[in-house]
Specification:
about 350 residues, globular, 9 helices
C-alpha cells in the first residue's frame, strides 16, 4: 500500500524535555561514623535493614557495636542508615574521614559517631561547622560528662558553644547510643512535607542510671543538654530538642532545608532557560520569575509547618547599574518560624460554688 503524498512536511514539531527537579534524601538519612571497621573497603554504605547489618557483621565488615547502632536507628522508623568508616590507626581523624565520605556520598544531614571523648567531639564539631559553605551537616553526640548537670557547660565545649551545628544528648552511661536513636527518630520525617519537632519519644535503650535532682535537671535544661526521661506513660522521651546554641534543632533544619531547596529551585529554573536557549532576563519578567521561586518555596514551607501562615515576605530589589554589570537579580525576604510547644501550664480553681448559674 503506497503512502499518499501530503503537505504535512510543512509542519515541523520538535519536542524537548525540560531538566527534572533535583531530588535527594539528605534530610531523611543519617550518618553513623565508626572507627576500626573495614566496611569491605568502602568509605560509606547505606543499610536499610537489620538483616543487611547481620550479614556484614558475619562477613567481618562491621562489628557488633555498628550492628547495634544500625538496628537501634532503624527501630525509630528511619528508612536508611549510612555507616561511615574511620581508620584512626591508618591516620584518620574523624573530619578527614568525613571529607572522604563526602566525596562518595553527601546525602545526609544528621551526623552521629562512636566518639565519647569530650575534647575529640568538640574538635570534630568545630571542623564540621567550618564546612558550612560546601556541606551543611549537623552533629549529634552523646556525652557522659557530669558537668552538664552543673551551672555552665563542660569546659571542653566552651569553644563551640556559639556554633549552630551541634546538639548534645546527656547520658551517664557512655555505652548507650541515645544520639543515634534521637537522630534517627527525627530524620524519619521528610521536611519537604512535614517540619517535625525535635523533642519526642525514643524506642529502646535505658534512661539515666541516676535520676537527676531537680537542680540538676534545671541545669541540664539551662545548658541545652537534651536527655531522655519518662513522660506520662511513655518510658523514654527526649527533651527539649535544643541545638547547642539554645535554638531548636528544627529551626536549623528549616534553615538548611530552605537553603538547599531554593538553591535547587534556582538551578532548575536556570537550566530550563538554558535548555530552551533563553536568557533569564534582568527586567520585570525575570524579576517576577525570581520572586515566584522564593514565594513558592515559602509557600511549601508554610504547608509543611516550617513557617507561620501569613508571616513570610519577599522583596525584589530595584535594578542597579551594578546589577546590570554583574548580571544579578537581588531579593530580600523574611519568615517567622512556626514554633512547637513543649511547656504547658493550666491554672484551675475547684470549689463547691456553682460555676454556671441559671435562673
Amino acid at each position: 500500500m503506497s503512502v499518499q503524498a501530503t503537505h504535512q512536511d510543512n509542519i515541523v514539531i520538535t519536542i524537548g524535555v525540560d531538566p527534572l527537579p533535583t531530588t535527594d534524601q539528605k534530610f531523611t538519612s543519617m550518618l553513623y561514623m565508626r572507627d576500626g571497621i573495614t566496611l569491605n573497603a568502602l568509605d560509606v554504605k547505606t543499610y536499610t535493614s537489620g538483616t543487611e547489618a547481620d550479614t556484614d557483621e558475619t562477613a567481618g565488615y562491621i562489628d557488633a557495636t555498628t550492628t547495634a547502632a544500625i538496628k537501634a536507628a532503624l527501630t525509630q522508623g528511619i528508612l536508611r542508615v549510612k555507616v561511615g568508616r574511620v581508620d584512626v590507626v591508618g591516620g584518620d581523624t574523624y573530619i578527614i574521614a568525613l571529607n572522604r565520605i563526602l566525596v562518595t556520598d553527601c546525602d545526609f544531614w544528621a551526623i552521629t559517631t562512636d566518639l565519647r571523648v569530650d575534647a575529640t567531639i568538640a574538635t570534630f564539631v568545630a571542623a564540621v561547622a567550618a564546612l558550612e559553605t560546601t556541606f551543611r551537616g549537623f552533629v549529634i553526640f552523646q556525652s557522659a560528662d557530669a558537668d552538664w548537670k552543673t551551672a555552665g557547660i563542660p569546659a571542653a565545649y566552651t569553644a563551640i558553644a556559639s556554633l549552630k551545628r551541634w546538639a548534645v544528648v546527656y547520658h551517664d552511661t557512655a555505652a548507650e547510643i541515645d544520639d543515634v536513636r534521637w537522630a534517627a527518630s527525627k530524620a524519619r520525617w521528610n521536611p519537604d512535607t512535614q517540619s517535625a519537632p525535635w523533642d519526642g519519644a525514643l524506642s529502646g535503650g535505658t534512661n539515666l542510671a541516676a535520676d537527676p535532682s531537680s537542680t540538676e535537671k534545671i541545669n541540664l535544661d539551662g545548658n541545652y543538654a537534651n536527655h531522655a526521661l519518662p513522660y506520662g506513660t511513655l518510658a523514654r522521651w527526649i527533651d527539649g530538642g535544643w541545638a547547642g546554641d539554645g535554638s531548636f534543632v528544627y529551626e536549623r533544619l528549616t534553615i538548611d532545608w530552605f537553603h538547599d531547596r531554593l538553591l535547587q529551585d534556582i538551578v532548575l529554573q536556570k537550566s530550563i532557560y538554558d535548555a530552551r536557549g533563553r536568557k533569564w532576563t534582568i527586567d520585570d519578567i525575570g524579576r517576577a520569575v525570581f520572586r515566584s521561586l522564593i514565594e513558592g518555596r515559602f509557600a511549601k514551607g508554610v504547608s509543611a509547618k516550617h513557617f507561620q501562615l501569613g508571616q513570610t515576605t519577599v522583596t525584589i530589589e530595584p535594578i542597579s547599574t551594578a546589577d546590570l554589570a554583574d548580571g544579578k537579580i537581588r531579593a530580600t525576604g523574611q519568615a517567622t518560624f512556626l514554633t512547637s510547644a513543649r511547656l504547658f501550664q493550666v491554672d484551675l480553681v475547684f470549689g463547691r460554688a456553682l460555676v454556671n448559674v441559671t435562673e
